[in-house]
Design a protein that fits this description.
Blueprint lengths: L7 E6 L8 E7 L2 E7 L12 H4 L1 H6 L8 E3 L8 E3 L2 H19 L4 E5 L4 H13 L4 E2 L7 H11 L3 E3 L7 E5 L12 E5 L5 H5 L2 E3 L6 H14 L5 H7 L3 H7 L5 H8 L3 H11 L5 E5 L9 H14 L9 E3 L11 H4 L6 H4 L13 H8 L7 H10 L7 E5 L5
Helix pairs in contact: 5-12, 7-10, 7-11, 7-12, 10-11
Length: about 400
């Protein structure tokens, strides 16, 4: 399929993550054929990661759907027939209206994936439809980290790469951040990514041991008194309790848990704490474990005790003004849900974290459904059974 792309290349940014690295898209015969870093980008040090370079496959894969398909035969047979968009939309709409009439709007769940404007639309549709059961991948993407940051230092911090920090630590992210000449680079990742190949120190922990590793680094920082004493005295509470807690996470003990040597843990702590302007960026890899929020708190504490908050090249508040935000209540029509419907949200009676005030602080919208309650509803019909799911940009299986 040809497009109206001009020959040569197009200057743009990669949208696979929030780093938005500058990118040149080379075009031939109206088709994107090659991606490379843009040397004229405001962040010319950024290099495209594996997710960026693989995006052409996603765009042009021969199995990519380009029109609606309707199942033909029994579920699981893999037989499909092509139908028109009009037939697809009317079939779906009529079925959803039937379910709302017979089982209530709460019998339909809306499941969304990566958080962007597309997912705002499915939240908007779900709220207008009247269901309180809107589910996302937030429990393993962004919210554990955002919750940990908010609980620890009160805002949703981001690395200030525009401040050109002297040292950058990337933890569980394949991003290649912009580095000024001479800046030190630390990568924590179980996989040897392109960023890991460029790093001054690469820590390769056993998967799901991020929290222990962070506590081991804190042990060195606090035991060797590498922390920012003035900042700790003025801005922190509970430091004495932290000091006692990390005693059980000596580099030697943490090495047994994480498979990272005690020497490398100590070296990392000393290097990262040796600079006044440094930042720590965490990624989704650290959010896919059961200790995700606690790890986020530990990573936030590392930045806090070193006094790296709210300074150029450190960790800054990137919440943004309302006009810049995604998913605001007015965008997704959350006010259309009645209190009666909200009480029918699966798991509402448990009051699980994140609570509404926290979630409103982060995203200015009501808290979404915890995924486990959707599974319980489907499998055990408790407290009622969800009859259908509308899924966009997600793979619950």
């Amino acid at each position: 399929m040809k497009s109206n792309l001009k020959e040569g290349y197009i200057r743009t940014v990669c949208g696979e993550c929030r780093m938005q690295c500058g990118m040149l898209v080379h075009v031939k015969d109206g088709r994107a054929v090659k991606l490379e870093s843009d040397p004229a980008s405001p962040n010319p040090g950024n290099k495209l990661c594996e997710k960026a370079t693989a995006s052409l496959e996603r765009l042009y894969h021969p199995d990519r759907l380009r029109f609606p398909l309707k199942r033909k035969g029994e579920r699981g047979e893999g037989k499909w027939e092509r139908i028109s968009w009009d037939e697809a939309l009317s079939t779906i709409a009529n079925r959803l209206l039937e379910l709302r009439s017979s089982h209530g709007a709460e019998s339909v769940a809306f499941i969304k994936g990566h958080y962007d404007r597309r997912c705002d639309l499915i939240s908007r549709l779900g709220n207008a439809f009247g269901t309180p059961n809107i589910v996302s991948i937030d429990n393993t993407c962004y919210i554990p980290s955002a919750s940990g940051r908010l609980m620890t230092y009160g805002f949703d911090g981001r690395p200030d790469f525009s401040g050109y920090p002297d040292c950058v630590m990337c933890w569980g992210t394949s991003a290649n951040p912009p580095l000024k000449k001479g800046a030190k680079f630390i990568v924590v990742d179980s996989i040897r990514t392109e960023a890991a190949r460029q790093a001054d120190i690469w820590l390769q922990p056993r998967p799901a041991t991020d929290l222990a590793l962070a506590l081991g680094i804190l042990n060195v920082i606090i035991t060797e008194k590498l922390y920012n004493k003035d900042f700790v005295d003025k801005w922190t509470t509970g430091f004495e309790k932290l000091e006692r807690h990390i005693q059980q996470y000596s580099p030697g003990k943490v090495a047994e848990i994480t498979w990272v040597s005690a020497e490398k843990i100590t070296e990392t702590a000393r290097l990262f704490s040796g600079y006044r302007y440094a930042c720590l960026q965490t990624g989704n890899a650290s959010e896919d474990t059961y200790n995700s929020t606690q790890f986020a708190r530990a990573a936030s504490i590392i930045q806090s005790v070193l006094g790296l908050l709210d300074i150029p090249g450190g960790t800054v508040d990137a919440t943004g003004k309302p006009i810049d935000r995604e998913g605001t209540s007015s965008d997704i029509l959350s006010d259309m849900l009645t209190q009666e419907q909200l009480k029918k949200k699966l798991g509402a009676e448990y009051g699980h974290f994140p609570a509404d005030p926290l979630w409103h602080t982060i995203a200015n919208k009501p808290a979404e459904l915890q995924p486990q309650y959707l599974l319980t509803s489907i499998l055990e019909k408790t407290p009622y059974q969800v009859q259908a799911a509308v899924i966009l940009g997600s793979n619950p299986v």
